[in-house]
Specification:
alpha+beta
């Protein structure tokens, strides 16, 4: 059994159950470095979701699918598993 830490945004158990709604692949938490890189794009006004809508606030964390093509943000502890809300990487 894996022990969770306070820095985990999504529990290990939940990660074993949920899948990317677009590709059906497993999801994993993104690294802090990846979030920092995405937030730099946010600061430059270059971060948008799948529909081209600008992201409205900096990212705290999120999940990425197996091929690292889609980022699903975690907002207030809730994973936004909506394909249209995903950020293409």
């Amino acid at each position: 059994m894996t022990q969770e830490t306070d820095s985990d945004l999504v529990s290990h158990t939940l990660l074993q159950l949920i899948r990317c709604p677009a590709t059906k692949s497993k999801l994993e938490q993104v690294s802090a470095d990846s979030v920092t890189q995405l937030n730099k794009k946010f600061d430059d006004g270059e971060l948008a979701d799948q529909l081209g809508r600008p992201i409205q606030s900096p990212l705290a964390g999120g999940l990425v699918n197996a091929d690292q093509s889609l980022f699903y943000p975690v907002c207030s502890g809730i994973v936004r598993l909506v394909v249209d809300d995903a950020i293409k990487l």
